[in-house]
Design brief:
Helix 4 (113-129) crosses helix 7 (184-196) and helix 5 (132-147) crosses helix 8. This protein has nine helices and two strands. By secondary structure, it is mainly α. The protein is globular, with a radius of gyration of 16 Å. The protein has helices at 14-17, 52-60, 94-97, 113-129, 132-147, 178-181, 184-196, 206-214, 226-236; strands spanning 65-66, 107-108.
Length: 237
Amino acid sequence: MKVDFTRWLPAIAKDSYRKTALSVAGVAALGGLALAPTAAAAPVTTGPHQGAVAAIDLATGKAATSAHQDDQPVESGLTTGSATGKPPAGKPSRAQLIPHGIEGAQSRVPLDDAQLANARAIVDAAKKTGVGDRGAVIGVATSLQESKLYNLGHLGAYNDHDSQGLFQQRPSSGWGTPDQITDPEYAATAFFSALKNVGGWQDLPLTTAAQTVQVSAFPYAYAQWEEQAADIVQQLW
């Protein structure tokens, strides 16, 4: 059943908040794609992260470093929070942002201006929808997995179905129109509206909460972005 988010969400002034979506040709199909809003938990499985990171690396020329490799994690831009010690004044603590601890090896990517702007849109939507700083971490980590925080338009012949935007949401599954889901404010608000329908999401591991909303083919992959997402949220909150 398709879900019309316009019943839940306030009208969004697209002319004021619309951001240009990044369209890329010649990209391998993205992994971990959002299917439809859901409140029924999907199974969590383990496995190597594939798809999204490789696809966006190819599309944008960015290279991610992972704790699976011998390289040191990338530290750049708004990606280095206070993992130890006292957080900056007025900022959420590490315990608030990662209450259940990280799951498995962590990945990081450097952030450009477009990615930072999209991260800010997600954090702002988390505040407006009332999911708080923990919800913001889940949202940023999900977008890091799905699109590396790039607002992707349709990838043409290489697109997986009709998935687009920061969260790779699908118009055909009820997430909204292409114009809506490539509006960062709308896409993030839609994601958090679905997250709030997940019973006890605050007490779930990040990858379980994200997967319940996204119904991804690579459900465990969200976990690898929790630490960087927490750093981003701590500094943007």
